[in-house]
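Internal ticket - ligand job 423, iron/sulfur cluster:
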Amino acid sequence: MNVNDSERIVSMLADLGYAPTNAPASADMILLNTCSVRGGAEEKVYRRLANLRIYKRDGKKQIIAVGGCVAQQEGEELLRKLPYLDLVIGTHNLHLLPDMVRGAERGERRSETTFIDNDQRLDLFPSIKGESRLSRFVTVMQGCDNFCSYCIVPFVRGREISRRSADILNEVRQLADEGVREVILLGQNVNSYGLKAESEPSFAELIRRVSEINGIDRIRFTTSHPKDMSDELIACFGTVPKLSGQIHLPAQSGSDAMLKVMGRGYTRKSYLDKVHKLRILRPDIVFTGDIIVGFPGESDDDFDQTISLMEEVRYIDLFSFVYSPRPGTRAAGLHDDLPRAVKMARLDRLMELQRRHTLEICQPYIGSSMSVLVEGEGKLPGQMSGKGDIGRIVNFAGENSLVGTFVDVKITKAYPNSFLGEL
Ligand code: SF4
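stdout (structure tokens):
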């Protein structure tokens, strides 16, 4: 979500004559787009801002701005605490950015963090222009109604709102006309798309309609809440060939007791049932996931159940986090009883297992052929890079003229985060 917001920000700033740079010291403007999903985000933002301050001390007329979830949470307070900060822009106020930047160029300091909890939020959402990538995010919904006990997202992003399907389909058609070949349907919980809007189709139906658009050859979506993963959506993996063979399905824990305190709304069994149904329809499907380690009250047995869930699912990649309380959430009121050393030891064990799974899942691809959407040059000279159906980067020797095409690449090596292959 933040990557997508950053793309929007870059697009809006380009309209004002700004271009990206890798040299912050000489930049005319620095905007930190922040995320507060993990603990310590506010402190990190304050630390980064303090470091940026040195550029202004040199007498440069530089605009410093903060956007994203930390901006939404802290608002005016950031401006009050940091006299060298010019702009604070909340998660629902991106449409005001051009006006705010023009004001800052005249020396005005401003904070805009108005929360918009109605359809207007999506109507005001600025579009991304001038990006010529082959794979693009398309927002289908925003916000979340789930209020998992540890999560700050519903407080900083607002309640769930689905975008009109006609607008989504128009955007995808336009992207296809511009040469985009893959769309990633985006939302905090795409599986609940349309549930609150009777006139809109289900998420499964939306995928089917997107798949009918000529020019779009691959569809991905994220993020997918397991409790809202309907049978109709699961069935799409058997009937919509354009749907990617990789799905992100965050489990968070393998223990029913932990899932209950987390407020996740599903059990270990119902999660695994969905995994098995998906595997029946798409035997080569790969799963990625999220796990929280050391949630308050997590016993050795709870953790062992998470390990055994990992053994059953066998994720190709896993985002694992040590629990840290987020102020304002229900879980922040729980006694965070586990010593840090125990949490870290559990995380090490989990990551060790994940490294083994990644290797075991990726090795068998060696010698096989993979359809790769070529996105651009690889890191090494003469190398091209793209993504295979399972979402992994594939590098191979090839010509620039291949960009924008699907090519068959024979996999020759599997690395922890990518494949090497040959045309
Ligand atoms: S589903 Fe839960 S974890 Fe995901 S954004 Fe909503 S509240 Fe947060």
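Auto-summary: Residues 340-362 form the longest helix (23 residues). DSSP finds 14 helices and 17 strands in the chain.
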